[in-house]
Amino acid sequence: MIQPLETDVCIVGAGMVGATLALALAGSNQRVIMLEARKLEGSTSSDDVRNTALGFGSRQLLDRLGVWQQLESDIAEIHSVHVSQKGSFGVTRLSRETEKLPSLGYLAPNQKILAALYQLITDNKHIELIDGVGEVALDQYERHVNIMYQDEGEERLVQARLLLAADGTNSSIRSQCKIETELTDYEQSAVIANVSASKFKHGVAYERFTKDGPVALLPLANQEYSMVWTMRPDAAAEVMALEQKEFLTQLQKHFGYRAGLFESYTRRQEYPLRLLRSKTVYQGRCLLIGNAAYTIHPVAGQGFNLALRDLSYLAALLNDVADPGLEVYLDQYQQDRKSDVDRIVNFTDGLLRAFANDSSLLVHARGAALAILGQSSFLQRQVSRQGLGLFQHDLSASQPQSKMISNE
Ligand SMILES: Cc1cc2nc3c(=O)[nH]c(=O)nc-3n(C[C@H](O)[C@H](O)[C@H](O)COP(=O)(O)OP(=O)(O)OC[C@H]3O[C@@H](n4cnc5c(N)ncnc54)[C@H](O)[C@@H]3O)c2cc1C
């Protein structure tokens, strides 16, 4: 008989969402055990070369958890966004002055965010992180969940009141809970890379709308741009196969010379643009969060920002409760977070449909969307504000007003 490790909360998945969630919950007096499939060597993690655009609300949360302070030298601020449209001379500029904000947003490399999170987790006595775990299986009971996993060939067992699945888009916990999902494939891909350009300007981001989809350049602290270039999957496959020089030439042709000459780039990666949404976010004592609950296409730059609002709400809701797995809390979480999730999903869905390629109707819609965007600097501003993941609400706007039942 295996001796169980008992805890209030077990989080499966120590990606950016699971790791931030652990810190937020530990601050809410919940004991946390985290299980991660990857072996986390040192404090860095993966070959993830992505960067994440963070809005103001995300900064507030990361600040409160002590993550921001560790990251400060790796964060670039965005002071203005230059929005243009291929084939049109119109340019719209968003700036912190016109928006009356200290900054339009921030950009940080994922690897640095993860390294800061793991360092804080290691130092936190309320969190136990177990990495390199094998397959995870669960059994639900009325008052707890049993989570079985393999650790170096040995069977182990965690007994938790609440299981939080932060195990990503292909969540095995979601499958085991038989939670259904809706998948929308936009038949578009994003090619990303960090590129250097001869006229790099600190604080200045660019977004260019083209008939094939938007391309964004966001400034990084190391004076490169984080580039997200959207196109059809067949075009993406061609772009991924280009020789280095030819890749830069094609990017230059597509983007123009606003940032000067493109000189070099780091490794390219391609991501399909899909929207995956779970039909419910909880079942029994298991709750999905982050990409496991909904995966939003990268062009929107919203997935992590949205998940931070979710987990901040959740940690506040579960603060000091005796049994965090009670349905009443999970249901309140689902209901109260729905409108924010719907808003982001609908916005990103609308944006991508406008740029999708697969039917004449959509091509027509895309043409119309571009025409409208071209005529309306107000709309360009709205699309860019949301589409770059900037300007998130103040975090206090997404906190629970009250608990539906009092703490036991
Ligand atoms: C190209 C790109 C750019 C993006 N840019 C932005 C942006 O600018 N702003 C923004 O807000 N969002 C952005 N996003 C979205 C953001 O990256 C995601 O919202 C975020 O990474 C989701 O993190 P996660 O922790 O939920 O999932 P993941 O990062 O997938 O982490 C899941 C973790 O679970 C682990 N795991 C999986 N299965 C198991 C198992 N069975 N047992 C134990 N562990 C397991 C994995 O090893 C992994 O560590 C972008 C996404 C992409 C693809």
List the helices and strands and how they pair.
Blueprint: E1 5-12, H1 16-26, E2 32-35, E3 51-54, H2 56-64, H3 67-71, E4 76-78, E5 80-85, E6 91-95, E7 105-109, H4 110-122, E8 127-130, E9 136-140, E10 145-151, E11 154-165, H5 172-176, E12 181-197, E13 204-210, E14 213-219, E15 225-231, H6 233-241, H7 244-255, E16 262-265, E17 269-278, E18 282-283, E19 286-288, E20 294-295, H8 303-317, H9 327-355, H10 360-375, H11 377-387
Parallel strand pairs: 1-2, 1-11, 2-8, 5-13, 11-19
Antiparallel strand pairs: 3-7, 4-7, 5-6, 9-10, 10-11, 12-15, 12-16, 12-17, 13-14, 14-15, 17-20, 18-19
Helix pairs in contact: 1-4, 1-8, 8-9, 10-11
This protein binds flavin-adenine dinucleotide (FAD).
How would you characterize the overall build of this protein?
This protein has 408 residues and is α+β, with helices and mostly antiparallel strands. The protein has a domain at 5-74 and 108-183 and 274-394: FAD/NAD(P)-binding domain (3-Layer(bba) Sandwich), CATH 3.50.50. It is 33% helix and 30% strand. The strands form three sheets. Strands 5, 6, 12, 13, 14, 15, 16, 17 and 20 form a nine-stranded mixed beta sheet that branches. Strands 1, 2, 8, 9, 10, 11, 18 and 19 form an eight-stranded mixed beta sheet that branches. Strands 3-7-4 form a three-stranded antiparallel beta sheet. Helix 1 (16-26) packs parallel to helix 8 (303-317) and helix 10 packs across helix 11 (377-387). Flavin-adenine dinucleotide (FAD) binds next to helix 1, strand 3, strand 12 and helix 8. Residues 12-18, 35-38, 50, 52-53, 133, 136, 166-168, 172, 190, 192, 271, 290-291, 298, 301-305, 307, 389 line the site of flavin-adenine dinucleotide (FAD).
